[in-house]
């Protein structure tokens, strides 16, 4: 199983999701997305795998979102992907990807990942 987790070690839900994955004997690729932000194309691919519009990957409660809300291009997918790549703290977390099946889930709550990693 080829699993990637877009992880923020400061987030308790992200830590719990990673713990849940590892407790199932899976050694995921860990992308600390704040330090290594995904590019705009990767963000668009994640949205497709999540079956969500890119706008749903925004954490609207984050100060960075609130401070820039009137300048964020919510209705322009390409511009939004570029904005989100430049502001990774606003990305929903954690995002867990099954690379083989090209599916993904958001680990909120952490148990959401079970359907993805259980075969």
Description of the molecule:
With 119 residues, the chain is of the alpha+beta class. It has one domain: 3-Layer(aba) Sandwich (Glutaredoxin). 36% of the residues lie in helices and 14% in strands. The chain has helices at 12-23, 40-50, 63-68, 77-86, 114-117, and strands spanning 3-7, 29-32, 95-98, 103-106. A 4-stranded mixed β-sheet has the order 2-1-3-4, with helices on both faces. Helix 2 (40-50) packs across helix 4.
What are the main properties of this structure?
119 residues; alpha+beta; Glutaredoxin; four-stranded mixed beta sheet; 5 helices; 4 strands; 14% strand
Question: Superfamily at the CATH H level?
Answer: Glutaredoxin
Q: What is the C-level CATH assignment?
A: Alpha Beta
The oligomerization state is single chain
Q: Whole-Å distance between the termini?
A: 10 Å
Helix content: 25-40%
Could you give the order of strands across the largest sheet? 2-1-3-4
CATH topology-level fold name: Glutaredoxin
**DSSP, total strands:** 4
Kindly provide the radius of gyration, computed on alpha-carbon positions and rounded to a whole number of angstroms: 14 Å
């Amino acid at each position: 199983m080829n699993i990637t987790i877009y992880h923020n070690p400061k987030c308790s839900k992200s830590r719990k999701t990673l713990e849940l994955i590892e407790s199932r004997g899976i050694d995921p690729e860990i992308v600390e997305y704040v330090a290594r932000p995904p590019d705009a194309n990767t963000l668009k691919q994640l949205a497709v795998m999540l079956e969500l519009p890119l706008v749903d990957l925004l954490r609207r409660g984050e100060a960075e979102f609130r401070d820039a809300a009137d300048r964020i291009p919510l209705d322009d997918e390409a511009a939004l992907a570029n904005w989100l790549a430049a502001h990774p703290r606003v990305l929903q977390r954690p995002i867990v990807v099954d690379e083989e099946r090209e599916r993904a889930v958001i680990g909120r709550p952490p148990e959401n990942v079970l359907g993805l990693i259980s075969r």
